């Protein structure tokens, strides 16, 4: 099928609504994504928790990467509501040869939340 | 020596000071970087112009990538003054095993201008 996709999730991201003694928003987003992915057996996605993607002013934040495809970084994600939206968006991404999903098809969260994109690594790098 | 570093430069970035009929700020930064790199023979850096890194609100923008190292995206760069600063910062980056330069050693432009960072791709991806 398609190449595997890695979904990096910043678990350090804070939110103003974080409980003082509870997990941070980024950790909650990570857990929500893991649960949502478990409900999609066979999805070619690996979730990797990361300590800081350096997008601290736009929590929660993820990065989506795959060999031969553009890497995308997204911010302003809601840990309570965005897990399935993110996985749907990654499904579209995984269905493209280069990672570039037509603008109209992208989830609203990806259109508004895009932080940066980076070209695919050179093949022989 | 060290692995090659790719410096992606957004040539689409605009600046309020852009002349109406002249090259955009991003294109000027690209040209300045190419000239500065030409004055450093042997530097293990390749410059790649890119049409849009999706950091449009923080022009000018570059991304720094290398196999096995973290990728960094930087914005708010001045096309007139930052070319050598960027190349100096890449020199430090190229001297690390993982791309993580100690905070104190990073150029001020990289500290303030960091937009995002992405982990190295998994070795067997």
TrEMBL record, chains A, B:
TM helices/strands, residue ranges: none
InterPro entries named in the record = DUF1636, Thioredoxin-like_sf
Query: From which domain of life does this come?
Result: Bacteria
Write down what this protein is called.
Metal-binding protein
Q: Which organism is it from?
A: Methylobacterium indicum
Could you read off the lineage of the organism from its UniProt record? Bacteria, Pseudomonadati, Pseudomonadota, Alphaproteobacteria, Hyphomicrobiales
């Amino acid at each position: 099928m398609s190449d595997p996709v890695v979904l990096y999730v910043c678990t350090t991201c804070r939110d103003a609504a974080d409980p003082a003694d509870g997990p941070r928003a980024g950790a909650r987003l990570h857990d929500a994504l893991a649960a949502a992915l478990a409900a999609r057996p066979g999805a070619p996605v690996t979730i990797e928790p990361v300590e800081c993607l350096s997008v601290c002013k736009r929590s929660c934040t993820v990065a989506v990467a795959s060999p031969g495809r553009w890497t995308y970084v997204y911010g302003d994600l809601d840990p309570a509501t965005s897990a399935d939206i993110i996985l749907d968006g990654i499904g579209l991404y995984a269905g493209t040869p280069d990672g570039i999903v037509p603008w109209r098809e992208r989830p609203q969260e990806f259109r508004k939340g895009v932080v940066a994109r980076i070209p695919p690594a050179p093949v022989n790098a």
